[in-house]
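Objective 1b. Sequence-to-structure analysis of Protein-UDP acetylgalactosaminyltransferase 7.
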Amino acid sequence: MRNYKRVIETWFDDEYKESFYTREPMAKFVDMGDISEQLALKKKLNCKSFDWFMKEVAYDVLEKYPKLPPNAKWGEFRNEATNLCLDTRGQHPPEKTLASSCHGMGGNQMFRLNTEGQLTSGEWCQTADSSGSVSIQWCSFGSVSGPWEFKENLRQIYHRTYKMCLALLPDSNSLVLRSCDKDNSHQKWSIKTLKPYWSS
């Protein structure tokens, strides 16, 4: 992550830096070290901007991979009834999303909910079907929106399409959609921003 950040801070314009930090928010906390030498070389060589590269060379990238909306929430999503966290367990789609003991290190427990309702972990989206089953799937190509909403006052993750709430089944630690119940702690989530232990 440190080397990624050095590249981003050397070559990306501010607009594109923001896209990277939306995708990898923990990188904001990483100490990248001194890049003054790289910036001086970039200036000496009179390099074109990254915006020029995107418009003249990689002009079709944003059509296929639109700019991500800002993150409304990101970090570990902890269930208040069980004290377990959303976890992809490193599994590839299609796979059920479960919850497991929170480790605070991000990785497969690092989730992002953007302002357009897409709930993701890496390149995978949290999806649900009409039966209430919740799983990880590859995000729809070119899509940055989704059906999810975090209701701050109730601490519930709401599915706008099915009008139900994300719940954790304590017997299996699996995730399902259930009719929203403001008094059910298995439907309540706290979201904690994470700082990587290797940030410095």
